[in-house]
């Protein structure tokens, strides 16, 4: 029973990260109908920038909270600038092009960002400095650290804040209007280009937070870390219903639980033939299953009703 509870806890932590990254995919798709396959690399850049700043300030004598805050602020700033640049240079000129052109461009941008990160930070893995508290709590035989509690709480606050932004603010109304009918939104005075840029910026800020969470949780960062994470987050968005913000949150948490439970019990289920290092296959089994049996996702893609 304690193994089951431990895997549930691990799944919630992993799912919180997936959900934050999936929100970037689903917001861009909801606004533009575009899958931004470079979003995983934005997460990677956030992790690398945060790690670099934290290492520089590690011996400064500042409190740990302030060091982490500086790292997060730097990562968010850089990621938002990267997201804005990607939209302005790579995607905006192709907004009315055939769907295949932006897709190929997104893959190309992903490769470019990976190689730029490799040139800047190198091919080696970068360890997260041991500055975070290591206190742990016992829950029915399972263990959770204070860092993991902070990851879940921060992710929940970020997702709640995003829901409030989308549903209760003027910017959120403009985003919803642009998503439902861009020409009519433009006639009503909404600056479509500005709203799309804001969508990329917000998604990139969430990616920066997720990047710091990943590097802190696993104590490591690498220039190629965003590729698999991005694919899994995209799977989470499809699972919940691509284009649906609440669906991305639900899909992220569910995928984290499925992957964690699968990794914990795959050895027993296969008689030791497969081990926990095969946990990545569950995301793609889920993706195949959703595309075959429920392409619109669990909650369903948000499609506007038109007269």
UniProtKB/TrEMBL annotation:
Keywords: Amino-acid transport, Cell inner membrane, Cell membrane, Membrane, Transmembrane, Transmembrane helix, Transport. GO terms for cellular component: plasma membrane. The keyword Protein biosynthesis does not apply. It comes from the Bacteria. The keyword Cell inner membrane applies. The chain crosses the membrane at residues 12-31, 38-57, 63-86, 98-121, 141-166, 195-214, 246-266, 281-300. InterPro entries: ABC_transp_permease, BCAA_transport_permease. GO terms for biological process: D-alanine transmembrane transport; L-alanine transport; L-isoleucine import across plasma membrane. One of its GO terms (molecular function) is L-isoleucine transmembrane transporter activity. It is found in: Cell membrane. It is a multi-pass membrane protein. Belongs to the binding-protein-dependent transport system permease family. LivHM subfamily. This is Leucine/isoleucine/valine transporter subunit membrane component of ABC superfamily. It comes from Candidatus Propionivibrio aalborgensis. The gene is livH.
């Amino acid at each position: 029973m304690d193994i089951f509870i431990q895997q549930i806890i691990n799944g919630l932590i992993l799912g919180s990260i997936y959900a934050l990254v999936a929100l970037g995919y689903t917001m861009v798709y909801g606004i533009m109908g575009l899958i931004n396959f470079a979003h995983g690399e934005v997460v990677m850049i956030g992790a690398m920038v945060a790690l670099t700043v934290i290492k520089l300030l590690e011996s400064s004598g500042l409190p740990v909270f302030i060091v982490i805050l500086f790292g997060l602020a730097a990562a968010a700033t850089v990621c938002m600038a990267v997201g804005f640049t990607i939209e302005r240079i790579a995607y905006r000129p192709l907004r009315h092009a055939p769907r295949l052109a932006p897709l190929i461009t997104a893959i190309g941008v992903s490769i470019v960002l990976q190689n730029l990160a490799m040139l800047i930070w190198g091919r080696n893995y970068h360890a997260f400095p041991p500055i975070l508290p290591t206190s742990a709590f016992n829950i029915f035989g399972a263990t959770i650290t204070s860092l993991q509690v902070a990851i879940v709480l921060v992710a929940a606050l970020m997702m709640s804040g995003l829901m409030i932004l989308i549903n209760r603010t003027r910017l959120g109304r403009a985003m919803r209007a642009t998503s439902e009918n861009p020409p009519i939104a433009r006639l009503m005075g909404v600056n479509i280009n500005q709203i799309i840029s804001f969508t990329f910026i917000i998604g990139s800020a969430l990616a920066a937070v997720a990047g710091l969470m990943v590097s802190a949780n696993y104590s490591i960062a690498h220039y190629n870390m965003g590729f698999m994470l991005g694919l899994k987050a995209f799977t989470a968005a499809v699972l919940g219903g691509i284009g649906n913000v609440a669906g991305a949150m639900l899909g992220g948490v569910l995928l984290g639980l499925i992957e964690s439970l699968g990794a914990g019990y795959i050895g027993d289920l296969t008689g030791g033939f497969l081990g926990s290092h095969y946990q990545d296959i569950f995301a793609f089994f889920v993706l195949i299953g959703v595309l075959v049996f429920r392409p619109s996702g669990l909650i369903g893609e948000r499609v506007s009703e038109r007269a």
